[in-house]
Design goal:
Number of strands: 22
Number of domains: 3
CATH class of the largest domain: Mainly Alpha
Strand content: 35-45%
Largest sheet: 6 strands, mixed
CATH architecture of the largest domain: Orthogonal Bundle
Distance between the termini: 108 Å
Order of helices and strands: HHEEEEEEHHEEEEEEEEEEEEEEEE
CATH topology of the largest domain: Helix Hairpins
Shape: elongated
Protein backbone atom coordinates (compact mmCIF):
# COMPACT_ATOMS: atom_id res chain seq x y z
CA UNK A 1 0.00 0.00 0.00
CA UNK A 2 1.48 3.33 -1.01
CA UNK A 3 2.09 5.70 1.98
CA UNK A 4 1.81 9.36 0.99
CA UNK A 5 4.80 11.58 1.77
CA UNK A 6 4.28 14.21 4.47
CA UNK A 7 3.79 17.72 3.26
CA UNK A 8 6.53 20.29 4.09
CA UNK A 9 5.07 22.66 6.71
CA UNK A 10 6.28 25.54 8.83
CA UNK A 11 7.96 23.27 11.36
CA UNK A 12 10.16 21.49 8.90
CA UNK A 13 11.03 24.73 7.18
CA UNK A 14 12.12 26.30 10.49
CA UNK A 15 14.27 23.28 11.28
CA UNK A 16 16.04 23.59 7.97
CA UNK A 17 16.74 27.32 8.46
CA UNK A 18 17.59 27.35 12.20
CA UNK A 19 21.37 28.27 12.08
CA UNK A 20 20.94 31.14 9.64
CA UNK A 21 17.86 32.44 11.38
CA UNK A 22 19.55 32.43 14.77
CA UNK A 23 22.59 34.32 13.47
CA UNK A 24 20.38 36.94 11.86
CA UNK A 25 18.34 37.31 15.02
CA UNK A 26 21.45 37.77 17.19
CA UNK A 27 22.84 40.47 14.90
CA UNK A 28 19.58 42.33 15.01
CA UNK A 29 19.43 42.21 18.81
CA UNK A 30 23.01 43.48 19.18
CA UNK A 31 22.34 46.36 16.83
CA UNK A 32 19.20 47.30 18.73
CA UNK A 33 21.02 47.10 22.06
CA UNK A 34 23.85 49.33 20.82
CA UNK A 35 21.49 51.93 19.54
CA UNK A 36 19.50 51.86 22.77
CA UNK A 37 22.65 52.21 24.93
CA UNK A 38 24.03 55.03 22.84
CA UNK A 39 20.80 56.93 23.21
CA UNK A 40 20.74 56.44 27.00
CA UNK A 41 24.40 57.48 27.48
CA UNK A 42 23.84 60.66 25.57
CA UNK A 43 20.77 61.45 27.60
CA UNK A 44 18.65 61.55 24.44
CA UNK A 45 18.57 60.30 20.90
CA UNK A 46 21.74 58.55 19.76
CA UNK A 47 24.27 60.53 17.78
CA UNK A 48 26.24 59.45 14.79
CA UNK A 49 29.53 57.56 15.08
CA UNK A 50 32.18 59.68 16.69
CA UNK A 51 29.68 62.39 17.72
CA UNK A 52 29.40 63.77 21.24
CA UNK A 53 28.23 61.05 23.60
CA UNK A 54 28.10 58.55 20.77
CA UNK A 55 29.10 54.91 21.06
CA UNK A 56 32.30 55.48 19.13
CA UNK A 57 33.65 58.50 21.13
CA UNK A 58 35.61 58.61 24.41
CA UNK A 59 33.92 59.71 27.62
CA UNK A 60 33.90 63.42 28.04
CA UNK A 61 33.36 65.82 30.93
CA UNK A 62 35.25 68.20 33.24
CA UNK A 63 38.41 66.87 34.92
CA UNK A 64 38.71 63.86 32.57
CA UNK A 65 41.65 63.49 30.22
CA UNK A 66 42.59 61.00 27.65
CA UNK A 67 43.67 57.67 29.27
CA UNK A 68 42.60 58.24 32.94
CA UNK A 69 42.45 60.75 35.79
CA UNK A 70 44.63 63.87 35.81
CA UNK A 71 48.07 63.82 37.58
CA UNK A 72 47.95 64.25 41.36
CA UNK A 73 49.36 67.46 42.80
CA UNK A 74 51.89 66.86 45.60
CA UNK A 75 54.23 68.95 47.73
CA UNK A 76 57.90 68.00 47.74
CA UNK A 77 61.06 68.85 49.68
CA UNK A 78 64.72 67.86 49.53
CA UNK A 79 66.57 66.15 52.35
CA UNK A 80 69.26 67.97 54.31
CA UNK A 81 72.75 66.68 55.02
CA UNK A 82 73.88 67.89 58.44
CA UNK A 83 75.81 66.59 61.46
CA UNK A 84 73.73 64.07 63.35
CA UNK A 85 74.36 61.50 66.05
CA UNK A 86 71.95 59.11 67.71
CA UNK A 87 70.69 60.24 71.10
CA UNK A 88 69.50 58.16 74.01
CA UNK A 89 68.18 58.52 77.51
CA UNK A 90 69.17 56.31 80.40
CA UNK A 91 69.02 56.22 84.16
CA UNK A 92 72.06 56.03 86.37
CA UNK A 93 73.36 56.23 89.92
CA UNK A 94 75.66 58.93 91.21
CA UNK A 95 78.90 57.74 92.79
CA UNK A 96 81.56 59.70 94.65
CA UNK A 97 84.91 59.98 92.93
CA UNK A 98 86.42 58.32 96.01
CA UNK A 99 84.39 56.63 98.74
CA UNK A 100 85.40 54.48 101.70
CA UNK A 101 84.09 53.12 104.99
CA UNK A 102 86.42 54.08 107.84
CA UNK A 103 87.12 50.96 109.91
CA UNK A 104 89.69 49.60 112.34
CA UNK A 105 92.27 46.96 111.48
CA UNK A 106 92.37 45.54 114.99
CA UNK A 107 90.04 45.01 117.92
CA UNK A 108 90.58 47.93 120.26
CA UNK A 109 88.89 50.62 122.31
CA UNK A 110 88.16 54.14 121.02
CA UNK A 111 89.99 56.71 123.10
CA UNK A 112 89.53 59.87 120.97
CA UNK A 113 87.35 61.07 118.09
CA UNK A 114 88.96 63.86 116.10
CA UNK A 115 86.29 64.68 113.49
CA UNK A 116 82.84 66.18 113.28
CA UNK A 117 79.99 64.70 111.29
CA UNK A 118 79.88 66.18 107.80
CA UNK A 119 83.27 67.83 108.23
CA UNK A 120 85.58 68.45 105.30
CA UNK A 121 88.94 66.83 106.17
CA UNK A 122 92.31 66.79 104.42
CA UNK A 123 94.19 63.68 103.40
CA UNK A 124 96.10 62.24 106.40
CA UNK A 125 93.95 63.96 109.02
CA UNK A 126 93.49 61.99 112.27
CA UNK A 127 89.92 60.79 112.58
CA UNK A 128 89.96 58.35 115.52
CA UNK A 129 92.52 57.23 118.12
CA UNK A 130 92.46 53.82 119.78
CA UNK A 131 94.04 52.57 123.00
CA UNK A 132 97.78 52.36 122.39
CA UNK A 133 99.14 51.31 125.78
CA UNK A 134 99.57 47.64 124.96
CA UNK A 135 101.04 48.18 121.50
CA UNK A 136 103.41 50.87 122.79
CA UNK A 137 104.72 48.44 125.41
CA UNK A 138 105.18 45.76 122.76
CA UNK A 139 107.17 48.21 120.65
CA UNK A 140 109.42 49.11 123.59
CA UNK A 141 110.08 45.42 124.26
CA UNK A 142 110.93 44.77 120.61
CA UNK A 143 113.31 47.76 120.50
CA UNK A 144 115.11 46.54 123.65
CA UNK A 145 115.53 43.09 122.19
CA UNK A 146 116.87 44.57 118.98
CA UNK A 147 119.39 46.65 120.91
CA UNK A 148 120.70 43.54 122.70
CA UNK A 149 120.97 41.63 119.43
CA UNK A 150 123.00 44.43 117.84
CA UNK A 151 125.40 44.56 120.77
CA UNK A 152 126.00 40.81 120.59
CA UNK A 153 126.59 41.05 116.86
CA UNK A 154 129.10 43.85 117.26
CA UNK A 155 131.08 41.85 119.88
CA UNK A 156 130.95 38.74 117.74
CA UNK A 157 132.24 40.61 114.74
CA UNK A 158 135.27 41.77 116.74
CA UNK A 159 135.93 38.21 117.92
CA UNK A 160 135.64 36.81 114.42
CA UNK A 161 138.63 38.92 113.39
CA UNK A 162 140.86 36.94 115.83
CA UNK A 163 139.21 33.64 114.90
CA UNK A 164 137.72 33.43 118.40
CA UNK A 165 134.23 33.18 116.88
CA UNK A 166 133.34 31.03 113.93
CA UNK A 167 131.68 32.36 110.82
CA UNK A 168 128.55 30.30 111.52
CA UNK A 169 128.16 31.84 114.97
CA UNK A 170 128.54 35.32 113.53
CA UNK A 171 125.82 34.54 110.95
CA UNK A 172 123.50 33.50 113.78
CA UNK A 173 124.07 36.79 115.56
CA UNK A 174 123.40 38.69 112.33
CA UNK A 175 120.15 36.77 111.84
CA UNK A 176 119.08 37.67 115.39
CA UNK A 177 119.59 41.33 114.55
CA UNK A 178 117.45 41.11 111.42
CA UNK A 179 114.76 39.26 113.35
CA UNK A 180 114.76 41.96 116.00
CA UNK A 181 114.45 44.66 113.33
CA UNK A 182 111.41 42.88 111.86
CA UNK A 183 109.78 42.64 115.27
CA UNK A 184 110.31 46.34 115.87
CA UNK A 185 108.78 47.18 112.47
CA UNK A 186 105.75 44.99 113.23
CA UNK A 187 105.31 46.61 116.65
CA UNK A 188 105.50 50.08 115.12
CA UNK A 189 102.91 49.12 112.52
CA UNK A 190 100.54 47.87 115.22
CA UNK A 191 101.08 51.10 117.11
CA UNK A 192 100.30 53.06 113.95
CA UNK A 193 97.04 51.15 113.57
CA UNK A 194 95.81 52.74 116.78
CA UNK A 195 95.55 56.05 114.89
CA UNK A 196 93.01 56.05 112.05
CA UNK A 197 93.63 58.71 109.39
CA UNK A 198 91.73 59.95 106.33
CA UNK A 199 93.14 58.19 103.25
CA UNK A 200 92.12 61.11 101.00
CA UNK A 201 90.51 64.53 101.24
CA UNK A 202 86.75 64.38 101.54
CA UNK A 203 83.70 64.85 103.69
CA UNK A 204 82.95 62.62 106.64
CA UNK A 205 79.58 60.98 107.18
CA UNK A 206 77.67 60.12 110.32
CA UNK A 207 79.62 58.88 113.32
CA UNK A 208 78.86 55.25 114.16
CA UNK A 209 80.90 54.86 117.39
CA UNK A 210 81.39 56.66 120.67
CA UNK A 211 84.25 57.14 123.10
CA UNK A 212 84.99 53.86 124.85
CA UNK A 213 83.42 51.75 122.12
CA UNK A 214 85.13 48.45 121.41
CA UNK A 215 85.59 48.22 117.67
CA UNK A 216 86.52 45.13 115.71
CA UNK A 217 88.03 44.76 112.25
CA UNK A 218 85.31 45.71 109.78
CA UNK A 219 83.31 47.83 112.21
CA UNK A 220 82.27 51.02 110.37
CA UNK A 221 83.32 54.10 112.32
CA UNK A 222 82.19 56.62 109.71
CA UNK A 223 82.23 57.14 105.95
CA UNK A 224 84.43 59.39 103.84
CA UNK A 225 83.46 60.61 100.37
CA UNK A 226 85.25 62.81 97.88
CA UNK A 227 82.24 64.17 95.96
CA UNK A 228 83.92 67.19 94.38
CA UNK A 229 83.45 65.23 91.15
CA UNK A 230 80.59 62.77 90.74
CA UNK A 231 80.92 59.60 88.73
CA UNK A 232 77.60 58.75 87.06
CA UNK A 233 77.25 55.11 86.07
CA UNK A 234 74.58 53.87 83.62
CA UNK A 235 74.11 51.26 80.90
CA UNK A 236 73.79 51.69 77.13
CA UNK A 237 72.43 49.15 74.60
CA UNK A 238 75.10 47.43 72.56
CA UNK A 239 73.63 48.91 69.36
CA UNK A 240 75.12 52.28 70.40
CA UNK A 241 78.58 50.87 71.03
CA UNK A 242 80.03 52.11 67.75
CA UNK A 243 78.80 55.65 68.46
CA UNK A 244 80.32 55.98 71.95
CA UNK A 245 83.71 57.39 72.81
CA UNK A 246 85.22 59.15 75.84
CA UNK A 247 84.64 62.88 75.85
CA UNK A 248 81.05 62.90 74.57
CA UNK A 249 78.93 65.49 76.45
CA UNK A 250 76.05 64.38 78.67
CA UNK A 251 73.25 66.11 80.55
CA UNK A 252 71.84 64.78 83.81
CA UNK A 253 68.78 65.67 85.83
CA UNK A 254 67.39 64.51 89.16
CA UNK A 255 64.18 64.87 91.12
CA UNK A 256 64.35 67.62 93.68
CA UNK A 257 66.46 69.96 91.55
CA UNK A 258 63.70 71.34 89.36
CA UNK A 259 64.94 72.28 85.89
CA UNK A 260 68.60 72.29 86.89
CA UNK A 261 70.78 70.48 84.38
CA UNK A 262 74.15 68.99 85.38
CA UNK A 263 76.56 68.93 82.45
CA UNK A 264 79.45 66.50 82.23
CA UNK A 265 81.24 64.18 79.84
CA UNK A 266 81.62 60.48 79.18
CA UNK A 267 84.88 59.14 80.58
CA UNK A 268 84.99 55.33 80.59
CA UNK A 269 83.41 52.36 78.83
CA UNK A 270 83.41 48.95 80.47
CA UNK A 271 85.59 46.28 78.87
CA UNK A 272 82.70 43.79 78.65
CA UNK A 273 79.11 43.65 77.45
CA UNK A 274 76.58 42.04 79.77
CA UNK A 275 75.53 38.78 78.01
CA UNK A 276 72.10 38.87 79.68
CA UNK A 277 70.99 42.44 78.96
CA UNK A 278 73.24 42.98 75.89
CA UNK A 279 74.25 46.36 77.27
CA UNK A 280 77.51 47.96 78.30
CA UNK A 281 78.17 49.91 81.49
CA UNK A 282 79.63 53.39 81.01
CA UNK A 283 80.70 56.14 83.38
CA UNK A 284 80.55 59.89 83.11
CA UNK A 285 81.90 62.63 85.35
CA UNK A 286 79.93 65.63 86.59
CA UNK A 287 81.58 68.59 88.36
CA UNK A 288 80.07 69.00 91.82
CA UNK A 289 81.88 71.91 93.42
CA UNK A 290 78.88 72.93 95.51
CA UNK A 291 78.24 69.37 96.70
CA UNK A 292 74.63 69.40 95.49
CA UNK A 293 74.81 65.86 94.11
CA UNK A 294 75.05 63.22 96.80
CA UNK A 295 76.45 59.74 96.17
CA UNK A 296 73.65 57.28 95.51
CA UNK A 297 71.38 59.84 93.83
CA UNK A 298 69.16 58.47 91.04
CA UNK A 299 69.58 60.54 87.88
CA UNK A 300 68.28 60.68 84.31
CA UNK A 301 70.96 60.92 81.66
CA UNK A 302 70.74 62.36 78.14
CA UNK A 303 73.54 61.41 75.76
CA UNK A 304 74.22 62.48 72.19
CA UNK A 305 76.60 60.15 70.38
CA UNK A 306 79.34 61.42 68.09
CA UNK A 307 78.00 63.19 65.02
CA UNK A 308 78.58 62.41 61.33
CA UNK A 309 77.18 64.06 58.17
CA UNK A 310 73.78 62.38 57.73
CA UNK A 311 70.85 62.84 55.35
CA UNK A 312 67.81 64.02 57.35
CA UNK A 313 64.29 63.97 55.88
CA UNK A 314 60.89 65.02 57.31
CA UNK A 315 59.03 62.27 59.14
CA UNK A 316 55.87 62.84 57.08
CA UNK A 317 57.66 61.58 53.96
CA UNK A 318 57.84 58.04 55.39
CA UNK A 319 55.37 55.41 54.18
CA UNK A 320 55.60 52.29 56.40
CA UNK A 321 54.31 49.07 54.89
CA UNK A 322 54.62 45.48 56.16
CA UNK A 323 57.59 46.17 58.37
CA UNK A 324 59.46 48.16 55.72
CA UNK A 325 59.82 51.89 55.17
CA UNK A 326 59.32 53.64 51.84
CA UNK A 327 59.24 57.17 50.44
CA UNK A 328 57.91 58.55 47.17
CA UNK A 329 60.46 60.35 45.00
CA UNK A 330 59.46 62.51 42.03
CA UNK A 331 61.59 61.77 38.97
CA UNK A 332 60.75 62.92 35.44
CA UNK A 333 57.24 63.90 36.49
CA UNK A 334 56.44 60.49 37.96
CA UNK A 335 56.30 59.17 41.51
CA UNK A 336 58.65 56.33 42.30
CA UNK A 337 58.42 54.34 45.51
CA UNK A 338 61.86 53.83 47.08
CA UNK A 339 62.69 51.67 50.10
CA UNK A 340 64.95 53.39 52.63
CA UNK A 341 66.89 52.35 55.72
CA UNK A 342 66.42 54.76 58.59
CA UNK A 343 68.52 55.48 61.68
CA UNK A 344 68.02 57.77 64.64
CA UNK A 345 65.45 60.52 64.96
CA UNK A 346 65.16 64.06 66.17
CA UNK A 347 61.98 66.16 66.50
CA UNK A 348 60.30 66.21 63.09
CA UNK A 349 63.14 64.49 61.21
CA UNK A 350 64.56 61.02 60.69
CA UNK A 351 68.03 59.98 59.56
CA UNK A 352 68.26 58.03 56.29
CA UNK A 353 71.21 55.66 56.11
CA UNK A 354 70.63 54.22 52.64
CA UNK A 355 68.37 54.61 49.60
CA UNK A 356 68.30 58.39 48.98
CA UNK A 357 70.46 61.34 48.07
CA UNK A 358 70.13 65.01 48.99
CA UNK A 359 69.05 65.81 45.40
CA UNK A 360 65.92 63.60 45.52
CA UNK A 361 62.56 65.41 45.71
CA UNK A 362 60.49 63.71 48.39
CA UNK A 363 56.71 63.75 48.52
CA UNK A 364 55.68 65.06 51.94
CA UNK A 365 52.03 65.91 51.22
CA UNK A 366 49.80 63.84 48.96
CA UNK A 367 51.39 60.43 49.42
CA UNK A 368 47.90 58.90 49.71
CA UNK A 369 46.99 60.09 46.20
CA UNK A 370 50.02 58.77 44.33
CA UNK A 371 51.01 55.35 43.13
CA UNK A 372 54.31 53.91 42.04
CA UNK A 373 54.97 55.10 38.48
CA UNK A 374 51.99 57.48 38.41
CA UNK A 375 52.24 60.96 36.95
CA UNK A 376 52.32 63.80 39.46
CA UNK A 377 52.53 67.58 39.50
CA UNK A 378 55.23 68.46 42.05
CA UNK A 379 55.22 71.77 43.89
CA UNK A 380 57.85 72.77 46.47
CA UNK A 381 56.54 73.08 50.00
CA UNK A 382 56.92 76.57 51.37
Amino acid sequence: MHRPEPLAGPTSALKSRTPAALALLASALLALAGCSKGGQDAGGPSMGRGGPGGAGGPPSGPGMGRGGPPPATVLVVNGQVRPFGPSLEAVGTALARESVDITSKVANTVTAIRFQEGQRVAAGSVLVELDRAQTAAALAEAEASLLESRNQFNRGRDLSVTQALSRAQLDQLETAVKTGEARVAAARSRLGDTVIRAPFAGRTGLRRVSLGSLVSPGTVITTLDDSSVIKLEFTVPQSFLGSLEPGLPIEARADGFGDRVFVGKLTTLDSRIDPVTRSIAVRAELPNADGAIKPGLFMTVGLRAKTTPTLMIPEEALVPEQGRTYVFVVRDGKAQRVEVRTGGREPGFVAVLDGLTAQDSLVVEGTQRVRDGGAVVAKPRA
